[in-house]
Amino acid sequence: MADVASNSTREILNKIHDWEKSQDSLAPLSTFQRNVVLDLSEEVAELSINEVCQLPTPKALSKENEIEPPLTKRVDTLNIESTNQFLNWYSQLEDEWLEEDDLIYTSYLNQLTERRDECANLLSQVESSLSHLNDLNKEYRSVSNKTNSLHQVSEQLLADQMKLSDVNSSVNDRMHHFKNLPRLAQRLESPALSVASDSFVQLLDQLDDAINYMKSHGTFKECSLYLARYEHCLARAVNLIKSYIFNVLIHATEQTASTPSSDVSHYARFQASAHKIKPILSMIEQRSSKFSEYDNLLSDCQQCYISQRESLISQSVIDTITELASNREGDYCSLTRSACAFLIHVSQDELRLYQQFFCPSDFYFCVIPRKSVS
């Protein structure tokens, strides 16, 4: 018996030796299996003592496996009485084993399904967002087109407005003199209007411009009618000027009538009224070449001046000539020299006085050179 035991032990040792032989071993390992063993050996060698202590024990693993009863317990609870029952039971176990084997893949499949659903949901949201973006893009293009159209229409309206504004300005310029007639006529009828004021000069300027405009645009409707009305207003203004100048000259004559012409104060008193009418007479002289109304007015004013001066000095001149004739009776040469000297002296005084009122180039007087009279 001892020999048999030693022989069996020797056979076991030989088999173990054959198991571990590098060549012709009883259970040869593939290269992949050897690499796995080496990797596990390296991992185990790197584990610390604490990590080894934390590894689950066989008891813990057995407790986890107790969640599902062992096969022996499940077999003990079965009541198998026929082959069909056994086959059904075995088929059920086989399905369970297959399910356990496929559990990892099933779980992965479920995860993939969930991810697919999430991706499908995300894709649906992206498509919805793209649809909204397309709608927004269409609306933006529509609004942009409408805005561009509105901008173009606005520019066209602005251009039309500028044209209409220019036309309106042109029409207002042309209608100004037609609309201004009632206002000018009303000002001429105002009792507060003064001929010596600057506003009256501006009024005359407006009347002159209006008359020139009406004459140069005779083809306008009712232009001749407005021209007649403006000429009537100008005649009214000329009458106001004439009345003012005549009154000033007549008043100056009344103030000077008590002083003889030989007195120095005679000319000083009459000349005192020159500052009242000299600007007006200068204005009339400047306008006399424009319209006949001003030229006639200037002639009337000169004639009035001459008549007033004549009324003042005519009797004095006649008396002086009569006195000279009586003093130099028979001496015609002396009388002629004395009378001519007197007349020249009077003429020079009158010319200087006239120049205080009118322009010296008027046809009523000419410059008489001073000559010595012996």
From TrEMBL:
GO terms for biological process: Golgi organization; intra-Golgi vesicle-mediated transport; intracellular protein transport. This is Conserved oligomeric Golgi complex subunit 3. PANTHER family: CONSERVED OLIGOMERIC GOLGI COMPLEX COMPONENT 3, CONSERVED OLIGOMERIC GOLGI COMPLEX SUBUNIT 3. Residues 265-360 form the Conserved oligomeric Golgi complex subunit 3 C-terminal domain. It is found in: Golgi apparatus membrane. Residues 108-249 form the Conserved oligomeric Golgi complex subunit 3 N-terminal domain. InterPro entries: COG3_C (IPR048685), COG3_N (IPR048320), COG_su3 (IPR007265). Its main location: Golgi. Keywords: Golgi apparatus, Membrane, Protein transport, Transport. The keyword Protein transport applies. It is a peripheral membrane protein.
